[in-house]
Design a protein that fits this description.
The complex is a heterodimer of chains A (107) and B (111).
Chain A (H helix, E strand, L loop, with lengths): L3 E4 L2 E5 L4 E7 L6 E6 L5 E7 L5 E4 L2 E6 L4 E6 L8 E7 L4 E2 L3 E6 L1
Parallel strand pairs in A: 2-11
Antiparallel strand pairs in A: 1-3, 3-8, 4-5, 4-9, 6-7, 7-8, 9-10, 9-11
Chain B lengths: L4 E3 L2 E4 L5 E6 L6 E7 L6 E7 L2 E5 L6 E5 L5 E5 L8 E8 L6 E2 L3 E5 L1
Parallel strand pairs in B: 2-11
Antiparallel strand pairs in B: 1-3, 3-8, 4-5, 4-9, 5-6, 7-8, 9-10, 9-11
Classes of the chains: A mainly beta (107), B mainly beta (111).
Chain lengths: 107, 111
């Protein structure tokens, strides 16, 4: 059974700092997705990673995929309060989601 | 483009009842997936419809069934509701199962 593990599950960081969220998965998959969810809201697509070595960046967020290591990372650069949300990775094998990383950015 | 729409927004049902949730996909999308998200957890994949057929199914009992119409809209039906079915139900649409766009969700409360 496919397992998707995110860590950390909770992350409190100060504005201006950098941090990385990790997403490990247990079986081969060629697609990995990152989503953002604000409290009480639906999911917003951030990145779709389609191949080994894929790297995508949007603003202060950068996602990468290593299919050999079965690992994706979401790197946050110089965090700002607006990035506070829950971030999910999902693997395209029955669209299995991780448990989510609840990020809080403090001034 | 209205994006993915879902109805109703909120719903309260009693144990044992049946419920139908509806989803209209984003324009140009042909694939609809349904997810259940319990409070504080990640979405759980229920099933995916493409060309009016169920293409994939997650680990959900037969009480959960669905349908896709020729216009690509979809329904999720849940029979014999349990308290544990209380959750946010999310619909997502895509073009041939590529990038998914999520609707706002239907909050179901079972009492």
């Amino acid at each position: 059974e496919l397992k998707v593990e995110q860590n950390p599950l909770f992350l409190s960081m100060q504005e201006g700092k950098n941090y990385t969220i990790y997403c490990n998965y247990s079986t081969t998959s060629d697609r990995l997705y990152w989503y953002r969810q604000d409290p009480g809201k639906s999911l917003e697509s951030l990145f779709v990673l389609l191949s080994n070595g894929a790297v995508k960046q949007e603003g202060r967020l950068m996602a990468s995929l290593d299919t050999k290591a079965r690992l994706s990372t979401l790197h946050i650069t110089a965090a700002v309060h607006d990035l506070s949300a829950t971030y999910f990775c999902a693997v395209d094998s029955g669209m299995r989601f991780g448990a989510g990383t609840r990020l809080t950015v403090k001034p | 483009d209205a994006g993915v729409t879902q109805s109703p927004t909120h719903l309260i049902k009693t144990r044992g009842q049946q419920v139908t949730l509806r989803c209209s996909p984003k324009s140009g999308h042909d694939t609809v997936s349904w997810y259940q998200q319990a409070l504080g957890q990640g979405p759980q994949f229920i099933f995916q419809y493409y060309e009016e057929e169920e293409r994939q199914r997650g680990n959900f009992p037969d009480r959960f069934s669905g349908h896709q119409f020729p216009n690509y809209s979809s329904e999720l039906n849940v029979n014999a509701l349990l308290l544990g079915d209380s959750a946010l139900y999310l619909c997502a649409s895509s073009y041939q199962a590529y990038e998914q766009y999520f609707g706002p969700g239907t909050r179901l409360t079972v009492t």
